Amino acid sequence: MRRDEQVRVIRRLMDHLDHQTNVDAGRIAQVPVSVYTDPERAELEWRRFFRNHPQVLGLSGDLPGPNSFFTSSDLGAPILCTRDKHGVFHAFLNVCRHRGVIIETADRGSRRTFTCPFHAWTYDTTGRLVAIPRQDHFGSVDCTDRGLVSLPAVEKHGFLWVNADREGRIDIDGLLGPELSDELDAWGLGDCIRTGEATFPHACNWKLANDTYGETYHFETLHRNTLANGFYGNVQTYDTYGVNHRMGLCMRRIDEMRSEPESAWRVLRGALPVYFLFPNIQLIMTGEGPILVRLYPEGVNPHQSRSEINWYVFPEDRRPAPTEGAREPLGSRMQAFAGIIQAEDYVAAASSHLGAVSGAQSHVVFGRNEPALHHYHSVFNAALGLPPIETFRT
User: Fold this and answer.
1) Which of 66-70, 137-141, 199-203, 209-213 shows the lowest per-residue confidence on average (mean pLDDT)?
2) Do the first three CATH levels of 3-52+178-392 and 55-162 match, i.e. the same topology?
3) Whole-number pLDDT of residue 329
4) Are 84 and 125 in contact (CB under 8 A)?
5) What average pLDDT does range 351-376 have in this prediction?
6) How many other C-beta atoms lie within 10 A of the C-beta of residue 278?
7) Which has the minimum average pLDDT: 58-62, 84-88, 133-137, 235-239?
8) Which member of 176, 295, 326, 356 lies 3.0 to 4.6 Å from 180 by CB, making a disulfide possible if both were Cys?
9) What is the pLDDT, as a whole number, of residue 327?
């Protein structure tokens, strides 16, 4: 984030605190509860957002060196992601071209070749078929035509982007726009080191889980004994970048910065930037490194979803010196943060889902102080070719 933008975010948060104000969408919005429960809507989202849309499957640190790999089934197909010996990122359908068996079953690791467990057909990290046992018995096979099926894959700004549709495309500049591209690139995410992960299933629509990241209005209630100790609730900044956005959450440590010159301000000391990357990514920038949250429906089921949460650290020379209150290992602190999301936010989201299917109300309402929720549902509807969400002044 540019220095002038860091100062702008801190100034705006201080101004909100001083005047007891918050971001204001200027209107209240409402959406039908059916956006969370309708099977036809769920099928359309699965097809448009997950099966045929560029998806972030990790950061560059998930492939830390040549011959590293990881596997994924998040997009409804078995996917193998590799970094070849030259450092180039690839994605393939993780399926042997002989009898269709899944080739690599490990979550991640390092290999020069991948061997099918059925008949030992072997592929290298570029997807090339390099060995067929007893080929003289099997018969003539054109190995150049039997490599792993390649998927569109791009590594940019430290993200690993994949499209599960082999005929699909990935236009990162079009997805992010120049301003957000520059800002994300400035964080140096490509240098971050992966330190841990967690998978959290939730009994709710994936958008309800996503909604919990859209405001801090709930901090003083839901997180009164946890996150509210370190954050001011109902105080934030909000900026949109096309279908994406950035929230700036207000940390209580911002008060320590008031006596400092602006030239000494660093945004991660007083704010927690949270980026939404359409359609399902939350990138949380902490002082020690990013947390990547990927939210997925369970296929076309509108009532089940899950979060894949990975945490990373900046290179050591970019991390702040440990404070007296942060003696706990970094990995443990990041895992504890993810645990709060699971124990509090996702429990509330599951409760909201029960409310949605109960028939108690026809719509849910988003306040003027919840502009990110307006944004989520507006861009979802637009991408699906549906009418705009309803808004009204108060």
Assistant:
1) 137-141
2) no
3) 65
4) yes
5) 97
6) 20
7) 133-137
8) 176
9) 55
Task: For the sheet with 113-115, list strands across it.
Answer: 113-115, 122-124, 129-131
According to CATH, the superfamily of the domain at 55-162 is Rieske [2Fe-2S] iron-sulphur domain (2.102.10.10)
How far CA 299 is from CA of 46, 48, 62, 73, 74, in Å, comes to 6, 12, 24, 11, 9
Judge contact between 40 and 277, C-beta under 8 A. Answer: no
| Spans of all domains in the chain | 3-52+178-392, 55-162
**Three-state secondary structure readout of the chain:** CCHHHHHHHHHHHHHHHHHCCCCCCCCEEEEECHHHHCHHHHHHHHHHHHHCCCEEEEEHHHCCCCCEEEEECCCCCCEEEEECCCCCEEEEECECCCCCCECCCCCEEECCEEECCCCCCEEECCCCEEECCCHHHHCCCCHHHCCCCECCEEEECCEEEECCCCCCCCCHHHHHHHHHHHHHHHCCHHHCEEEEEEEEEECCCHHHHHHCCCCCCCHHHHCCCCHHHCEEEEEEEEEEECCEEEEEEEEHHHHHHCCCCHHHCCHHHHEEEEEEECCCEEEEECCCCEEEEEEEEECCEEEEEEEEEEEEECCHHHCCCCCCCCCCCHHHHHHHHHHHHHHHHHHHHHHHHHHHHHCCCCEEEECCCCHHHHHHHHHHHHHCCCCCCEEECC
State the architecture of 3-52+178-392 in CATH terms: Alpha-Beta Complex (3.90)
Tell me the pLDDT tens digit for each residue of 247-297: 999 999 999 999 999 999 999 999 999 999 999 999 999 999 999 999 999
Cα of first residue to Cα of last residue in the chain, in angstroms, is 35
